[in-house]
Protein 1
Amino acid sequence: MADKVEVENVNHPGKTERVDAAKYTAMRDAMLKVLPSDDPGMKAGDVVDAVKPYLPDALFPGGKTAGWWVKCVQLDLEAKSIIKRADKPPVRLFKI
């Protein structure tokens, strides 16, 4: 059984899910590498494209499932106050 990590969801405080630790860690590291530190940040859709070069092909062959993992990690990092959404649409993310 693969190692799991517990993730939070900013939209559902107090609720957690367990996900693959290796994929979570790889995506978290890639997102923190590409996200700017300034508002207004990077569009969520652009984050998916930006992280792909930093993801290990063994975990994300050809970038497969990157979109789902970006959202998963985004919601967790928002809940932990590591990243934030810009105040105005569209959804833009930046590091705090």
Protein 2
Amino acid sequence: MEKTESGWKKKLSPEQYRVLREKGTEAPFSGKYDALFDSGSYKCAACGSVLFNSDTKYDSGCGWPAFFAANAGSIKTQDDNSFGMRRIEVMCKRCGSHLGHVFDDGPRDKGGKRYCINSLALSFEKS
């Protein structure tokens, strides 16, 4: 998906632009989807690609929406060594927007992954 940065600035709120395009992070427990457990799909707020299903969301207590699995082919990852930390960044495969990070401390019976995703990077469609 090709879009200029000025195009993204027109489409996204300033807060969404900071998270999605500048790899920012929202404050913990501030996002509107952290405590939402309705049935539906979580989409990339930038391009609308379906990233996570509600049946993979769980309450990790971390302060951001957490999922134990992403939809097949919807995300890509890369090493993130910013701020003196070693993490794995999660991005939308379709538009390349920053979503959050994935960690290996998720539910063991579900594969052990915790996709820690910014609410500002998501939109939700109820089913």
